[in-house]
Amino acid sequence: xxxxxxxxxxxxxxxxxxxxxxxxxxxxxxxxxxxxxxxxxxxxxxxxxxxxxxxxxxxxxxxxxxxxxxxxxxxxxxxxxxxxxxxxxxxxxxxxxxxxxxxxxxxxxxxxxxxxxxxxxxxxxxxxxxxxxxxxxxxxxxxxxxxxxxxxxxxxxxxxxxxxxxxxxxxxxxxxxxxxxxxxxxxxxxxxxxxxxxxxxxxxxxxxxxxxxxxxxxxxxxxxxxxxxxxxxxxxxxxxxxxxxxxxxxxxxxxxxxxxxxxxxxxxxxxxxxxxxxxxxxxxxxxxxxxxxxxxxxxxxxxxxxxxxxxxxxxxxxxxxxxxxxxxxxxxxxxxxxxxxxxxxxxxxxxxxxxxxxxxxxxxxxxxxxxxxxxxxxxxxxxxxxxxxxxxx
Length: 393
What we know:
By secondary structure, the chain is of the alpha+beta class.
C-alpha cells in the first residue's frame, strides 16, 4: 500500500489527501513498504531512507551549472506538490523536478523535464551519498574491470567518470555502501557523468555527484538493504537484462564455444609483435618498424612456464594489429542527422548511419598520428612547419 504523508517541522505528523501543495515550512514525504523520501522545500534537499536498514542517504539539492561553469542560484517557484506517489517542484528557471515512487523493486526515480540554454548541466545529485572513513564504506564504480573508491588518503581530489571511455564508466550505474547498507543508482542516457569528490579538511569525506547534460533527464535510486558490491552487481543484472545489455557466459558460449577458454584466463601482455608506421612519435624514421619480442616458440615456452611453474593453465598473449584510428571523413549530408547544436555525432548520427549501412571502415597503412594532447598537437605542427609533413600533397 502506498502512503503519502507530510512531516512538519513540529512534533506532530499530519496526514494529507491524495493531492496537496505544501508550503515551504513543511517537509514532504513519499513512502512505500521499502523506501521513504523526505524532501525539504526550504533547501530543495532530500534524503532517501532504506526501510530495511534505517540507513538515510542524503541526496543534497540539485546544482545548476551555467555554460561558463559557474553555479546558478536555485530558487523554488511555488510550493511542492504531492500527488499519487509523485513529488513535484519547479524552480524559477522553469525546470520541473519529479521524485516518483517505484514499488518493485522499491526505488525513487528522480528526474527533470527540460534543460534551458542558461543551464549547461544539472547535478541532480550534488555532494550526495557522503561517506566517512570505515571498512564498509565505499563507492563501486564500473571503471574498466571495476574499482572501489574509499574515503581514505592524505590528499583531496575530484575525479570525473564520463560515459563509456577509458577513464569513465563502462555500465550506466554505480553503487554506494555505507556501514553495510547498499544502494544502486542507474540511468540510460550517456550524457550522464559521475563525479567523485574527496576532502580531507575539516574531516575526511567522500561524496558523489551525478551531472546530467543535453538529453539526460533521470536517475533511479534503489536502496538494497544489507550488502556490498556483490549485492549491487546482483541488483544491476535485471536492469541490464531489461535494456538488452546482459548476456551471460552461457549465452556467449552457445554462440561461440571458444569463449569458454577465456573464462578464468590470466591477462598477460608481453606484446609478442608490434608494428610502428613511419614518421610518428613512436617511429620518427621514414621506414616501417617491426619488432618481434617473442617468437611463436618462445610464446609456447612462456605458456609452458605459466602452466608448469606458476600453475596458470590459461593466459592471454597480445599480438598487436589493426586499431580504430578515430578519424572520420563525412559527407555534408551528415548535418541532416543532427537536430541542433546539442545533438551528438556518435549517438544521433553515427548510430543511424550504421543502421542504414552508410558507415564504413577502411584500412590505412600510411602516416597516422593521434591528436589527444597538446604535446601531440605541437608535434604535428612542428612536422608541418618543417615542410616535410608526410600528409602534404
